[in-house]
Design brief:
A hairpin with a 5-residue loop joins β5 and β6. The longest helix has 15 residues. Strands 2-3-1-4-7 form a five-stranded parallel β-sheet. Strands 5-6 form a two-stranded antiparallel ribbon. The protein has a domain of 106 residues: Rossmann fold (3-Layer(aba) Sandwich), CATH 3.40.50. By secondary structure, the protein is α/β, with parallel strands linked by helices. It is built from nine helices and seven strands; from the N terminus they run βαβαααβαβαββααβα. Bound molecules: adenosine-5'-diphosphate (2 copies) and zinc ion (ZN).
């Protein structure tokens, strides 16, 4: 099962991908999580990426293409993968095609999670994140104990890029650079739209109905 979870920032890609990865026992590959881990560890990649991430800009394509190529060649991807946050530009999508051809793991589907801009702003501004990759929402998906992660117990924090002005910038970057990929993947016959407005559970069951076809 080889899928991309596609959609604007705040659509619920990370939330769904975590559950799907458990349900289907395939890896969840989030470029945002990988980049943030590099920022925390202070690697060269992290130092370079942070300048873009804090402003809500995209990290340059060549950085992301190298990163995803390495990740997809790890052994856990033999059974499939769920990509979250990649690709975000046409050059990234072109590179992905080449990489997947080489490892003979072509995409089954690009699941496009649709959510209105107004709802995205609400979701992102109330998001609280954990270093383990879990995310919560202060109103829509609160942790069992306020301020702490259900899974690992660590303190939750608000991402720098989840501040109102940066949210607007990220949505603008999405519309300009990433949204054109909907046409790109429609032309390849891979897009499947999902209504992302409902509860976490209802979105999950819609996606499972799609993914079950590729088991
Ligand atoms: P969200 O889940 O809210 O959409 P991500 O965690 O996917 O955010 O990404 C956070 C930031 O990391 C992006 O705003 C961007 O700076 C950087 N980033 C992540 N993935 C990519 C990518 N494929 N190409 C370029 N930059 C990326
Ligand atoms: P993305 O990875 O697409 O940026 P996240 O999965 O991090 O999005 O979700 C963004 C925010 O919205 C988080 O605070 C999350 O708890 C919340 N959220 C996710 N799915 C839903 C949903 N179906 N309804 C309400 N809130 C949601
Ligand atoms: Zn955690």
């Amino acid at each position: 099962m080889n899928v991309v979870l596609f959609g604007p920032p705040g659509a619920g890609k990370g939330t769904q991908a975590k559950e799907l990865a458990k349900h289907y026992t395939i890896p969840h590959i989030s470029t945002g999580d990988i980049l943030r881990a590099n920022v925390r560890e202070g690697t060269d990649l992290g130092i370079r990426a942070r300048k873009y991430m804090d402003k809500g800009e995209l990290v340059p394509d060549e950085v992301l293409i190298g990163l995803i190529s390495n990740r997809l060649s790890e052994p856990d991807c033999v059974s499939g993968y769920i990509l979250d946050g990649y690709p975000r530009t046409v050059p990234q999508a072109d590179a992905l095609r080449g990489i997947l051809e080489q490892i003979s793991k072509p995409l089954d589907a690009v699941v496009n999670i649709e959510v209105s801009d107004e709802e995205l702003v609400k979701r992102l501004s109330g998001r609280r994140s954990c270093n383990c990759g879990e995310s919560y929402h202060i109103a829509f998906n609160p942790p069992q104990k306020e301020g702490y992660c259900n899974v690992c117990g660590n303190d939750l924090y608000q991402r720098e890029d989840d501040m109102e002005e940066v949210i607007r910038q990220r949505l603008a970057v999405y519309n300009d650079k990433t949204k054109p990929l909907i046409d790109y993947y429609t032309d390849m016959g891979l897009i499947v739209n999902v209504d992302g407005a409902g509860s976490v559970e209802s979105v999950f069951s819609q996606i499972c109905r799609i993914m079950d076809q590729y088991k």
